[in-house]
């Protein structure tokens, strides 16, 4: 494969385009609502009506507005049809023939769409995730080609560092710094690992990226491999995402067949292969040392750091671990330049962030906004507020490691530092809206139950501490707790946070701490007096 | 105290291998292990395949895998029980997985589960005594945009209510019925 | 090997480069409480009792896996650390059924000793009272899961000194159990060599020689160090 061949594939793909395109969402949300049937019926209808030279029916990735699926986007009239049923799908062809249709359209001028800025999701909903040609037609793998043939590895690292890209998995570690650490670590064998173990309940950004645009992740990984000097990559995906797994498998196979993965990529000295590893239902494997243990086929228990994976990772070799969204940003940065990327976002948080907007909000779905967008814009303007006009109470970010931002603080600009100041975290991008009917103590207990069940059991504070914190929260929730129980709970939160071995334990108390900070009255309201009053004393009025 | 350590122990693995010899599924599993060059780090991949072939992982299978990958049985058992995706007991004919992710939870997944447990008389993680339905919960299936979600025999259904769930389960409960969701 | 100087609790200490803070402290006669650490096998940093405050680090670091560095300033016994240690021990006591008065290791138990040292006079958290079994099927040894603290010393000696791989941890979180082979009775194990190293390693009364009574169990931990030194360095230090 060389540049001419790559361009030829692009030309051929573009030449085969037809005047009309029906882009059918085939990501998990729409599929569960019958999206695959819609696509099938449309294909049948196009064949029956002899419109094959006029209309292309293309299965694409996420079209964002998951709550209204199945979604079909019609080009070039630029209309997004929602709740398309297999029975009514045929009507869309009337639209193309100039007729009218009775199907619902989504308002593409709504802030939900207009406030979005797509970098990671640029191809999502546009390219066919099951065809590499479709990705190449959107300038896919051009960044890899240019990096390999026109840049030195250190230039690539410099570009990533200048762009200001930070880890999208939650902690926000500067990506360029991580890459240069791995590049500098001595070792003949190095690995690149993509963390696709998106375990936060309420998060589906990575799943959408993998289902909608798997090649962008592969391209990002290959560029990283070149930059740090690795020749083997692993993608660790959770077993709960069968569609993402299938599409990744397909993508790897297609890239290998075209020689974009394998030996001597684009005639350069880079050899790079990617293998999939399927998780098996353990949240803790999102922690990088646990993830590596799992790739090595062992129990996914974390180990103390240092040594960091960049120095000693998989099988003791220097290993670069980045999250799906981080890798998906890389091709765009190489293609458009580091300065372009650095011009988006806030001073310390550059670029965009993908969020999965869900919970008690009108428009649920996938959004990508520039860093620094306020939470209020996201929830009230884009999300359209709570359904039925209910009052929003809080927004939960960061999953079981994060916290709840109360409604009155929603003017906070979303970036790594601001959310941390509010006792929450950016996390991987799950955003759950809660309204007045949501009980914050119950939410805290929900997350503690999660952490208790997902604790690996290796270190004592997390293994036994989460059990005790869960017990105390249950007591308080049931109205059996006392002020002494609340004090014990707070003390345990502090202890587990500071003494646990890995991130899971260290952040497990966050949902409790944050709800205590902003909704303490909900806890205190439930407490009963410390010492039970003897009935006789009570009767005597004492 | 006199103890005898010399007492020969039954070689369980030999029995397992002879039982496995007549089972085609073990042959497929063996081929899969060969594809991974019997690498020990492929253990989780192999267990995935084993569960796909057998529906669950019984002791025979675990011992077989241990023998082929040349791992101590305790390692295979330790890994199989660490990951909740792996089942060491047979599942029911049908499965009903209630997603308990945050988005589903705040939208009433807990009520769905209560209704389900009430109707079937089993708790999450259990199978009805007639072996028809297993009730399971998932941490998050990532279908938050269509919460609350329930997965019936591998098919995700959006925006479920307790009534929806009970209606879907109805055909599974009548014995002899072969209907499945999505047919 | 080059030496580095650091201070532990304000006292200047010299240690070879590459040593852990725990080793440096032990050489300098400073005691740091440990539970999962065992001479002769690698460290896992799991019990969190040896946590340190290190100047310049906002995280508490385990002494057993943290390497010494030039000019490092370490505190092992601050009020905060003492509080956390006591809480860790309370959590352990509440987790399973540790009844010292009827235990074979009463008086020779590391957990008990640490609790005394920490001044743990009572446990503030509700006892979990799990229903756990006792495995008496092995002709020589017994295992009482009620007294197990999951330090994994037995697992590590079985894998890395004896090399049999008989024992392992199964399950996850609070459901973790030490198992034998495929979670079968110890006496039926096909891999166990009956070497008894796991029993020597156990810090509590979870693993014991059959036939010992209340308070009679003596774990012979230094023998493990003896074997490792003999094997690896060809030095037989009695």
Sheet-strand content of chain A, in percent, reads 5-15%
End-to-end gap of chain A? 89 Å
Q: Given the helix and strand composition of chain A, which structural class is it?
A: alpha/beta
Binned strand content of chain C: 15-25%
Please describe what this structure looks like.
The complex is a heterotrimer of chains A (542), B (183) and C (238). Chain A has 542 residues and is of the alpha/beta class. Chain A is 43% helix and 14% strand. Chain A folds into four domains: 16-111, Glutaredoxin (3-Layer(aba) Sandwich); 139-342, Rossmann fold (3-Layer(aba) Sandwich), CATH 3.40.50; 353-435, Ubiquitin-like (UB roll) (Roll), CATH 3.10.20.600; 440-524, de novo design (two linked rop proteins) (Up-down Bundle). Chain A has 23 helices and 14 strands. Chain B is an alpha+beta fold and 183 residues long. A four-stranded mixed beta sheet of chain B has the order 2-1-3-4, covered by helices on one side. In chain C, 25% of the residues lie in helices and 16% in strands. A five-stranded mixed beta sheet of chain C has the order 2-1-5-3-4, with helices on one face. A three-stranded antiparallel beta sheet of chain C has the order 6-7-10. The model of chain C has no long low-confidence stretch (mean pLDDT 95). Chain C is globular. The longest helix of chain C has 17 residues, at 79-95. With 238 residues, chain C is of the alpha+beta class. Chain C starts with a strand and ends in a 5-residue tail after the last helix. The chains are: A alpha/beta (542), B alpha+beta (183), C alpha+beta (238). Chains in contact: A-B, A-C, B-C. The interface between B and C is medium-sized, with 22 and 23 residues.
Short structural summary:
The complex is a heterotrimer of chains A (542), B (183) and C (238). Chain B is an alpha+beta fold.
Key traits:
heterotrimer, B: 183 residues, alpha+beta, Glutaredoxin, 2 domains, C: 238 residues, Ubiquitin-like (UB roll), Alpha-Beta Plaits, five-stranded mixed β-sheet, 6 helices, 10 strands, 16% strand
